[in-house]
From TrEMBL, chain B:
The keyword Flavoprotein applies. Residues 1-219 form the FAD-binding PCMH-type domain. This is Xanthine dehydrogenase family protein subunit M. It comes from the Bacteria. The keyword Flavoprotein applies. The lineage of its organism: Bacteria, Pseudomonadati, Pseudomonadota, Alphaproteobacteria, Rhodobacterales. PANTHER family: ALDEHYDE OXIDOREDUCTASE FAD-BINDING SUBUNIT PAOB (PTHR42659:SF5), XANTHINE DEHYDROGENASE SUBUNIT C-RELATED (PTHR42659). Keywords: FAD, Flavoprotein. PROSITE patterns: FAD_PCMH (PS51387).
Amino acid sequence: MMDDMDLSLHHKMEEKDERNQLDQTAQDVLSKPLDRPEGPLKVTGRATYADEEHPEGTAHGVFVRSTVAHGWVTGMNTAALRKMPGVLAVVRDAKMLRNPAQGTAGEAPVQNPNEIFYVGQPIALVVAETLEQARHAALAARPKYEAKDGEFEVPLEDYETPPKKQSSEGDLDSAMGQAAHSVDSIYTTPAMGHAMMEPHAAVAQWDGGKLTIRASCQMLKYNVAELADSLGVKAKNVRILSPYVGGGFGGKLGISHEAVAAALAARKLKRPVSVALHRRNVFEATTRRSETRQRLRLCCDDQGHLTGFGHEAWVSSLHGESFSEPVTQASSFTYAGDNRVIGHHIARLNITCAGSMRAPGEAVGVPIVECAMDELAEKAGIDPVDFRLRNIPEKDPSTGKPYSSNRLADCLTEGAKAFGWEKRGEVAHQREGEWLIGLGVASAVRVNMLMNSEATITLDPDGHAVVETDMTDIGTGSYAILTQLAAEMLGLPMDRVKTVLGDSDLPPSSGSGGSFGAASAGSSVMLAARALREKIAERLGVEEKDVTLKDGNAISGNKVTPLTEILAGERLKAKGEIEPGATGDDVRQATWGAQFAEVAVSAITGEVRVRRLDATFACGRILNPKTARSQCIGGMVFGLGSALTEELSYDLRNGRLMTRDLADYHIPSNLDVPPMNVTFLEDRDPYANPMQAKGIGELACCGTAGAILNAIHNATGIRVRDFPATPDKVIEAIEAAQGQG
Amino acid sequence: MRDFVYDRADSADAAQTAAKEGARAIAGGTNLLDLMKHEVETPDRLIDVNRTGLDQIEEADGGLRIGALVRNADLAAEERVRRDWPLLSRAILAGASPQIRNRATTAGNLMQRTRCAYFYDLGSACNKRSPGSGCDALNGVNRMHAILGTSEHCIATYPGDMAVALVALDAEVEIAGANGKRTVPIAEFHRLPGDRPDRDNVLEDGEIILGVTLPKPTGGAQVYRKVRDRRSYAFALVSAAVDVTVEDGKITRAALTLGSVAAKPWRSNEADKVLVGSEPSRKAFENAADRLLQGAQGHGENDYKIGLARRTLVAALAEATGIDIAGDAA
Ligand SMILES: Cc1cc2nc3c(=O)[nH]c(=O)nc-3n(C[C@H](O)[C@H](O)[C@H](O)COP(=O)(O)OP(=O)(O)OC[C@H]3O[C@@H](n4cnc5c(N)ncnc54)[C@H](O)[C@@H]3O)c2cc1C
Ligand code: SF4
């Protein structure tokens, strides 16, 4: 037996990698539309999500929520609550959280629930024998407050303007003044909720000083650190299990209320405690996407070449939070223009903590840029696709750095062809009965990232492999692609590779977030496999690049040797580790796409029906076209929701969230979702990582809303600048336009 | 959720007896259970009426008698309903989701409570939930709220679809109480809030609903049009139910009802009469709509409903009478 972890391969992305090893392997399972290995478990209900496995004797915790938005809790009828049927404890602990940790924080977020910052903040946990008893007692809580005034709306002045988040080049004001055409528009987007299928939940159990917690988490290595820090215990005494996660979209990046409170309650009661958030808690007490106000100032010459590009954004967050929606993230590098202004302003409000939600920044910034580009194209009298093509820079216009790969032009051109863009008519020109028909386009852009990630592969003497990493599968397909990667690299049939994820005792990965999971965790698996390949090659006396692995055999020259023979009864274990390096800074890395929408707008009711959504993306090597497409259509539905239906409505008098369930917070229903076409362009970005794979799931939601809103304009002649475009707003604008006309 | 006693009734009489003793009926549970979990409603005793046998659809006097327990999905799919009262089928199918319609019942649907978010939030002032506490919706988030028949005490809507069709179809509600049976025209079943917004309808304590009766089919052209934020699984912003008969180019009978604009489906004889005798035309429809919407008043976020209801009603009438108004949709 070899020593565990005798083999390891660490790689830092300091320079471009043009080996494209995955184009040379022979097993032919990668880039194939294979089913998820865990799919049958999920569709038969046997995949156990966080709250679906309760150890014997599990008690149930339900939060008491604050009904005021700002101030202090000065007391509570805890004695009375404790006497209620089934109640075991009322936990009011300074270690409980104010709000969940932000993504990759790796330390406790703001604690102490006695100081209140928003309505719905958990201020105590009632634990009882049954969920119903706990809930009843929680509703019977009568907290006493010392309430203070709260802020609920981003003010028009008096906000933070962090110098590091502002930039300007040239002179935008005079460019706007001199330009042949210009646009100066204000847009707003509402606060939004992640609305993932599985609400946050945690089941905590202590064994002596060791905590094991089943929770619904996206990034285990950070979550362990955040949980340990919150509880004041050592990270090595905390183990998180998240084998299956029912969606997160960024809402489960950081450790949240339920995990900390369940752990505290379980320690106090010396028995397992489950805390499953109610959907209302998820909406009002985890995180949300910030509302935004955005000012776009774009101008161009008479040939439609941008001369100025200004994008300023106002967003909100809780006091003291470092994250703020990076609305302008892609604005610095997407389009040309010598005179540029980027502005980022933050208001501190007393409403639900703002955090990362699918494509933070671009998801709300890009659609608005794309609407403003549409406005300017119209003023300049240039077709919107053509207008974009005229303004794709050679290199990052803000920094002068080259792009690692930029196929926006190809996406637009090929996407337009596939969609039938040439059929787009004049504004307000096409009609079927009461329905006004229009087409719209938007570019999609999203920054591309790589994170530290580790994985091991164990190759058993019988030629089976086990991949292990603390990576999570939040519905994205991690199990599928990591299995495919290992099988491809090691020349094994899929059924001889098993992937184990979602256990913080396994090697620390990037976790799922920022669309970097596949690229980061995947690279670590690839490197571990490469280490094993090197060992195999060494035993054959050849170079790794000269050996072909296929169907359990190693082929070098004209010699075929079974893997089992090479292993000779030995087990090999290798660790792979990827580290981001200079390629993250030297070049501008992003993923690109073009999105097209056809809509029908009722001239009577203002209802918008999306009839078709098309997208063409260039986002690196596609590891599994089936799961990749799922990510894209999911992203496009996400975009559709942000365009037409999704909005968290707060009562601005007192900060109460009035849309706290899935009946009131309108994600698109099946009937709202049209046929969708997704095309991937072949893309190999040597700067990204050794796999040349890039982010996918977030890119897909970045352009959709822009394409839809632009299609509404093409159909009706109106522009809705206050998202989402609900019937009331659309019909009001149509009526106003008719009044003028 | 509070503890409660649960009993099952195996006949309408048993259900009514239990109701008299203070038990609350539970049918599909799709509304009541939610409200109980949030403790917006806290009945001590439930009487399950699912096995009372009130789940039949029978012919009666040329019309139909629909048992209280007939599921929404079954009623919408019933052949006679689809043929003679298509308005009812369409209204039901425009509501909720297939799963909920499979479970939800005729009586439960009539009895469903408002979706005002303050009503569902124990932390908010709400006269309907907690009489005398105030109405936070009046100057708050009220995009879904009523524009007709409101009071300073409550501006909530009755949110359902089925009842809107039933009002246009002149249905009646059969009720059993301690003193026997009574019948109430559906248009008089739901109440306007006045100073008692806690009372949604005229059902008295101890009474249960036995069923709904439909009179003979009118033979008119029927249209249900629902405007909503998404295409399914959303309550109406406004809806319009119309049943119109045209003979020799003239409207001889009209029933116009608006949904989600008031605490009850909104119909007026005067508005119906505006149309009778006139030729179907955009102008006539607008006059009728204006009559029906007389006195409508917005409360901020829901101001749009006045115009939207008018346009929707006119469009429904145009569809029912085959008039093309699309060319000049304003
Ligand atoms: C997410 C969601 C979306 C929805 N969307 C729509 C929509 O778009 N349109 C729409 O119309 N509806 C909609 N609904 C509401 C749905 O139609 C109602 O919940 C359903 O019709 C209630 O019927 P039930 O049998 O489940 O009633 P239950 O929940 O069992 O009872 C509701 C009420 O009726 C009373 N009750 C029941 N039977 C009797 C009886 N025989 N006599 C006296 N009282 C009785 C109960 O005591 C209770 O007060 C939606 C519901 C949900 C949850
Ligand atoms: S509108 Fe009616 S239901 Fe809503 S808060 Fe006011 S009183 Fe309550």
